[in-house]
Amino acid sequence: MKVFQGFNEIAKIPHPVLTIGTFDGVHLGHQKIIKQLNEVAEKIGGESVLFTFYPHPRMVLFPESHGLKLIQTQVEKLDKLERMGLKNIIVHPFTKEFSRLTALEFVRDYLVNKLNIKTIVIGYDHQFGKNREGSLELLKELAPVYDFEVIEIGAKDIDEVNVSSTKIREALKEGNIELANTYLGEEFQINGPVVHGQQLGTKLGFPTANIELENDIKLIPKNGVYATRVARENNAEYFGLVSIGERPTVDDSGRISIEVYLLDFEGDLYGENLRLKILKRIRDEKKFDTLDELVKEMHKDEERLRNWIVDYNW
Hints:
The protein is α/β, with parallel strands linked by helices and 314 residues long.
């Protein structure tokens, strides 16, 4: 997959078949669009293209009040899009100046003049351009003028999936990780390097790896303990427990931490980037009166995990 940052130094793409959107999560609805995009491109001997933006438009237009949390970091999104078989991505820098482009200017100046678009695959309700004035109807009006084809993904095809990035965000906020994973078509991920912590877990007999997030725009599930599969840089995988929360028994700062305990693992993980695939919610975060009570509960968590693994379908 080729990734272009805007149109600078963009290579000529043969017969580009394009769709537009932010595609946060690359969920089942997005995957349906990409599948059709790839099929159309293959049929006409062209290449699939996703035109997307970074940063997210709301972050630019409402910098002080956007309140946005994204299902994926940019790296995670690009990785999943590549796994979906997409051939090209244009990540256009979203600026206030760019936001003032009319839909006509966007189609004419970018899609036609710069990309030489031949086919656009788009959902029946997609909107774009200044004041979201761009629509399927406008594209159909412009198609004969600028010599491109518009392929509509109809309401039945999109709505029957019954999924949206908003639904996934709500499921994650509620700790319903299994529903979120169903919508995503795979496990929700938390990725990041292992950094030094207080090493309290080691002292308690449960050595944990502290994960540092790439940025604070990443949406993290509701505080609690979750079953996870942990992929190391060498692709070795381990089951584990990830604790997300404020560690109320040992810390009163209110800072959210992410700590993962790998089953049957010995070694040093500092500095290594881990991929946490979150599988199942084990329990809520609790505050214990003593460290002994905390350790007893951690042993119960491990027992719950090992019992669940027996029936887990790889």
